[in-house]
Write a structure and sequence with these properties.
Protein name: Putative membrane protein
Keywords: Membrane, Transmembrane, Transmembrane helix
Number of helices: 28
Organism: Kutzneria albida DSM 43870
Helix content: 55-70%
Pfam family, one: DUF6541
InterPro entries: DUF6541 (IPR046671)
Number of strands: 5
Structural class: mainly alpha
Length: about 650
């Protein structure tokens, strides 16, 4: 597949993310860039909830499930708007048409530069991302397509017999499955294009909504927000090259929408584009969307949003104090601090989050180094973004003069603090702060662009405004004497100063996880030779058969690559006794009756041997001594082979 061939798939991914939610936002009274930018959050929430509901109702997953669900929601919203039109202003005052035009034109360089980053980083549209985490994400989509069950409540065990179901946020996998169902594309290609659309379309749109709430009806702000949003290393590009954290990426694209709703509710929005009546349900939708994409984004939204709520409460308190109502003046801030403190204390001690809080990543630098990296947007030993970081610092300084930016700076400081703790300390006693993000500095570093983007945009606007007020530009054209024109010029200069928004560094960070990069055998899940072998044996394995395997030799990818189920569908050995016993004793099937009992229980009729050496030093790959090449041992029939790669039918149990 060429990148030109992949354009229709990219358009389908964009359509699935934006179009389902757009009728809902429009009927709710939103207009312009706000309606478009909020739509993906609605889509993600409805898709995730409809997947859970469909499973509960016994309805198989298909493209019609989210479409019918969003249609029902649109009807309810439309009826509500119709009934309330005489009591409330149902439709928000539309922004000037120029604002929408500026936003859309601002997306053009984003699409160009972002596409270059994706092409250089991924290599080919269908290129495999070869990391530990992608195994689950690929196979989760394969499981959804095979089973017709896309519920987040059961996704965690991938439907393997005897394991029941467990929660895993499935909105990402649901959306990728919809792209596959709509186009017939392979799972790797659909995953790559969905991630790309999130980075270069949905994330910039979400940032535009947040900037619109912070700065107001500014054509200049909308024109430059897009390019600013993709300049940071840690997000969106950082999460596309680490993990790989696709579900987290989906959730983070929703976060600015939730914070934009908080600005409406706290009274901090400038020329509020949402309105309080819409902000309440939108906040709920954002939390649902984030929770079903990846729950740690819920904590990111809450942490940054806290400062907006507190700032709003403090402003009201100051007003009450000046009016002489001093007793009431202290109530609001105290309630906010106590409420958020209680939520934090509960989350820091709740047993449901205990496994997440116990995740451990060794500290890798000193606190001073971590602070320096955060200020230079060079977290996790990345290239320092000097020009961009200088503009961020200008935005921080401006908060002294412009009240609208003060909560933004506080949220930015929180993100820096959390990153520094995870990167340089990370002890059991710090998990109460960073444990909600698995104590992972990469996830925490991804929070900074949420507040960094408004700070950069504000700095560019301030510089353009001051320059036009300078009054010494008589020879410049009319366009350059306007704030909008000069802001665009400054944004263009930023692109030049950052060598194309650091596109080379961003592409390299993505490239490191893909098969097209120069990878050692130790970091390769599936080689081209192995992939060709899987394709060859596909028709020799019945579609409903279960295959025994050692997942560490590359065969773990068979469910997503060729649609054949394996008992090792993750790189972690499940605790089910049947799986464990087969993993350790299958090779003795002819002389161990217990092997056949478990094989019949699980429907295991085949054994596949791969050639992968992924993480060869990891001791977990040795937990499968029963899945070694049986050679001439009785109970197995060799069906196909290519060097060390082999496919056997298990003849001893009558299951093959």
């Amino acid at each position: 597949m060429t990148w030109l061939d992949a354009v229709p798939l990219a358009l389908v991914c964009a359509a699935w993310l934006i179009l389902p939610g757009l009728p809902v936002t429009y009927l709710a009274g939103l207009r312009g860039i706000t309606a478009v930018g909020v739509a993906p959050a609605v889509t993600v929430a409805v898709t995730g909830v409809s997947a859970v509901a469909a499973n509960k109702l016994g309805i198989g997953w298909s493209v019609w499930v989210p479409l019918v669900s969003v249609l029902g929601l649109a009807v309810l919203v439309g009826l509500g708007a119709l009934l309330l039109r005489r009591r409330f202003q149902v439709v928000r005052p539309a922004d000037p048409r120029g604002l929408l035009v500026a936003a859309l034109l601002g997306l053009v360089p984003v699409l160009v530069i972002g596409s270059v980053i994706l092409v250089k980083g991924m290599g080919r549209p269908e290129e495999l991302a070869q990391t530990f985490d992608t195994v689950f994400h690929y196979n989760a989509v394969g499981y959804i397509l095979d089973s017709g069950n896309a519920s987040s409540l059961t996704l965690g065990t991938l439907g393997l017999p005897g394991l029941g179901g467990s929660f895993y946020p499935g909105a990402w996998h649901d959306l990728v499955s919809l792209a596959v169902l709509s186009t017939g594309a392979g799972i790797p290609a659909a995953s790559n294009l969905m991630a790309g659309v999130l980075a270069v379309v949905v994330w910039p749109l979400s940032c535009m909504v947040l900037v619109r709430q912070v700065i107001g009806r500014s054509v200049a702000a909308m024109a430059c927000t897009g390019v600013v949003s993709i300049a940071f290393s840690t997000f969106p590009w950082g999460l596309l090259g680490f993990g790989v954290l696709w579900p987290n990426t989906l959730g983070m694209t929703v976060a600015p929408i939730g914070i934009a709703a908080v600005l409406s509710l706290s009274g901090l929005a400038t020329d509020d584009a949402l309105g309080k009546a819409r902000a309440w349900p939108l906040l709920g939708i954002s939390y649902v969307a984030a929770g079903l994409a990846h729950p740690n984004v819920v904590f990111s939204m809450t942490g940054i949003g806290f400062f907006a709520v507190l700032t709003g409460a403090l402003r009201r308190s100051i007003g009450l104090y000046r009016e002489g109502r001093r007793a009431r003046a202290f109530v609001g801030p105290v309630v906010v601090v106590v409420l958020f403190g209680a939520v934090w204390w509960w989350a820091a001690h709740a047993s449901v989050f205990e496994p997440i809080r116990r995740s451990y990543w060794p500290p890798f630098e000193s606190p001073a180094q971590a602070v320096g990296e955060a200020l230079l947007n060079a977290q996790n030993n990345r290239t320092a973004l000097w020009a961009l970081s200088a503009v961020v610092l200008v935005g921080i300084v401006l908060a002294k003069r412009y009240r609208a930016l003060r909560w933004v700076v506080a949220g930015h400081a929180l993100s820096i603090f959390l990153f520094v703790v995870a990167a340089s300390m990370n002890r059991p006693d710090t998990a109460k702060f960073t444990g909600f993000w698995y104590n992972d500095s990469y996830r925490l570093a991804a929070m900074l662009p949420i507040t960094g983007v408004p700070l950069v945009v504000a700095a560019l606007l301030w510089a353009a405004t001051k320059t036009t007020e300078w009054g010494k530009l008589p020879r410049l054209g009319g366009l350059l004497r306007s704030v909008t024109g000069l802001t665009v010029v400054l944004a263009a200069l930023l692109v030049v100063a950052t060598k194309g928004l650091y596109f080379g560094a961003h592409a390299e960070s993505i490239k490191s996880i893909y098969a097209g990069a120069r990878r050692s055998a130790d970091s390769t899940l599936v080689s081209d030779r192995e992939l060709a072998f899987f394709q060859r044996i596909k028709d020799k394995i019945p579609a409903d058969a279960m295959v025994a395997n050692n997942p560490w030799d590359g065969t773990v990818m068979m469910p997503s690559l060729i649609g054949r189920k394996t008992i090792g569908a993750q790189l972690l050995l499940d605790s089910n006794p049947a799986y464990t016993y087969l993993a350790q004793h299958l090779v003795d099937v002819a002389r161990d009756p217990q092997v056949c009992r478990y094989a019949k229980q699980l429907g295991v009729g085949y054994l596949v041997i791969g050639d992968g050496t992924f993480w060869s030093a990891d001791g977990r790959r040795l937990q499968y001594p029963g899945t070694i090449d049986p050679g001439r041992r009785p109970g197995f029939q060799l069906l196909d082979s290519d060097g060390p790669m082999k496919l056997f039918r298990i003849t001893a149990c009558g299951t093959g």
